[in-house]
Write a structure and sequence with these properties.
The chain has twelve helices and 16 strands. By secondary structure, it is α+β, with helices and mostly antiparallel strands. It binds aspartyl-adenosine-5'-monophosphate. Aspartyl-adenosine-5'-monophosphate binds near residues 168, 404 and 405.
Amino acid sequence: MKINVNELNNYLDQEITFSGFVDAIRDKKWVMFVILRDNTGKVQMTIEKSDENNQKLLDIMTNLTVESTVKVTGKLVSNEAVKLGGIEIIPSTIEVTSMAQPLPFDFNNLDGVLIDTRLDYRWLDLRNEKNMLARQIESTMVQAMREFLYNNNFTEIHTPKLIGTASESGSSVFELKYFDRKAYLAQSPQFYKQMAMAAGMNRIFEVAPCFRAENSNTNRHATEFTSFDLEFSYIDSYEDVMSLEEDLLIAGLTKVKELYGDKIKEVFNKEVIIPTKPFPKMRLKDLYQELHERYNFDIPEHDIGDMNAEAEKLTYKLALEKYNSEFMFIVDYAATKRPFYHMRDENGVLQGYDLIWRGTEITSGSQREHRFDELAKNAKEKGLGKDVEFYLQFFKYGCPPHGGFAIGVDRLTMLLLGLTIKETQFLFRGPNRLEP
Ligand code: AMO
């Protein structure tokens, strides 16, 4: 196994083999310093020019470009004068494993480099320390959330992304040719999460792509994104769903703060704030009124019963000012604006919510309508016919009361680090971007 930079201290005064990128070459009069890099850090390799045996190594390095990769064998020694961790590699052999051509831009200094140029060469852009760190932080957040669910008896499932009918009414669907018929890319695992409840699986989750044919060029929309979806049974109300989401986010953020809190502050200038339970919650009607009174904001006519981007931004402001919280649940959306599978109470009040964090919606969730007759009625009201017939069948043969939610992983990372979605996704997918 390759030894990583952050493991080198275990090998002091030993003969080692180290592989990595050539980060920099500093050719001085008496000595050549080469900085080697992997995704865990940097280490110095020192070649003395006075030693005749080093001529071959110097020749290799003189002809080498930065960002080439090498495999170096040599002795790892301590040297207090070395700024990089007080250690250096004194090489005996250097093998060039790949030679880099001149780079299209300096990934260490991305100021002024267009985001589209960065995305064209995303594998170089990702070499930037900040981007490398963002990937590790996202991985930690998702790992901690997964672990929380495993510890709470959730089972991870994998639902199909090729589907016969649209899965999320209201958002557009990608259509594709499927032999001699049409198929669609799943906009959400919604129907299958609920099928798992009808199957008696009790508690499930999935972390997987969702596809949305939305022609929106904002800093928070992608046509493909990763959704952290879960669903669980035997709930009493959507309050149970919100409570689980609070615990889940607290678990994720606690781990991230523990491992990366200082680094996030240093590199991204963002504080990781662990929220406390319960997160503040507001009914949409009351929110409208507060936003009007405090910020003179009125929701446009066509958005009444729902939120829009401006309302989300101001909700963050309000959450901070009124509750000293970065999070806020919004409830009591208009049934006409929400999917038919959300339960409504006897007064027609929707049993669903959105969660706003730092000015952006990160989650939709709800108690689901699990009673066949009610669900069929709601679907009909929305004008959904044949498309949802297969889904309605799930509720015919017994199905426990249940609920769930989905968190957009890309949005979570983006808001955690103060980035745009293009900078955040491993490879952004939008209306004008399918490559690389
Ligand atoms: P919804 O459509 O609100 O709900 O999506 C859930 C969450 O997914 C993220 N998201 C997106 N992220 C990036 N680009 C997009 N175009 C995009 N669209 C959505 C957001 C959003 O809050 N089935 C329901 C969830 C449920 O009730 O369980 C659903 O899909 O963070």
